[in-house]
Amino acid sequence: MGKIDGAVSWAIAIANNPAHGYDQLHRWGPDYDCSSLVISAWESVGLAVREAGASYTGNMRGAFLSCGFRAVTGSVDLATGIGLEPGDVLLNYGAHTAMVTGNGRMVAARINEHGQTTGGAEGDQTGREICQQNYYNYPWDAVLRYQERGTTAADHSAGSGNKVPAHPETTIRGIPLVKRGSRGELVRAAQYLLEGRGFSCGIHGADGDFGSATEKAVKAFQDDRDLLQDGQIGDNTWTRLLLG
């Protein structure tokens, strides 16, 4: 479940960081709209859905299906959400998309502080521009589910930008190990999680660069959670970062 967990954790980290708000004109970071958030989450783990043609809700279905997803709409109760799994992409072709995070919850970019799609200040001004919320039926036209396969070091390095060693270094969740010298969106997601739990990654914050300040934050987090203080984010540290 490596890519699925990675995409979900990236989206949650974005939602938990007030530096990211909703905007349709400036939508590829730091602000996002509903489709660019979901597209970017999967891009962060190496699925080239944007290159395959995904740019907004109206063309996401075909692009995602070409990148290893399949439609599972018929096996899900859209009214209640029964049958949904973490990572499932909820898609209304004309208007909205969200990602399932598990336990009856989903994450989505919603609207800016003025109730509009453009014209707001950068970042989340309300705490609800990008957020997790309880599942509801928008209504959704389709549910797309990624078909997880075995991951390799090449898979991880191609998508996340991390410096991955020659042998596969992955966590038990399948998320790549990141450490000093790693770079990319997976590092940025980890930094958001650390910052959100009160462990500063330095003056540059979540910049996607695993330097000395981030290593110091990881060691402090590990000490606080009674983990081995090696300064690397492996299976146990990822689990505690993701679950609290």
Describe the structure.
This protein has 244 residues and is of the alpha+beta class. Helix content is 31%, strand content 12%. The protein has helices spanning 2-16, 34-43, 57-65, 153-160, 185-196, 212-224, 235-243, and strands spanning 69-71, 89-92, 96-102, 105-109, 130-134, 142-146. Strands 1-6-2-3-4-5 form a 6-stranded antiparallel beta sheet, with helices on one face. The protein is globular.
Strand-pairing-aware structural class: alpha+beta
Question: Which radius of gyration do the C-alpha atoms yield?
Answer: 17 Å
The residue ranges in which pLDDT falls below 50 over 5 or more consecutive positions are 150-173
Strand content: 5-15%
Task: Please give the largest β-sheet.
Answer: 6 strands, antiparallel
The largest sheet has its strands arranged as 1-6-2-3-4-5
Q: What's the SSE pattern?
A: HHHEEEEEEHHHH
* DSSP strand tally: 6
Number of helices: 7
Question: Would you tell me the overall average pLDDT?
Answer: 85
Q: Helicity level, as a percent range?
A: 25-40%
**Overall spatial form:** globular
Distance N to C terminus:
19 Å
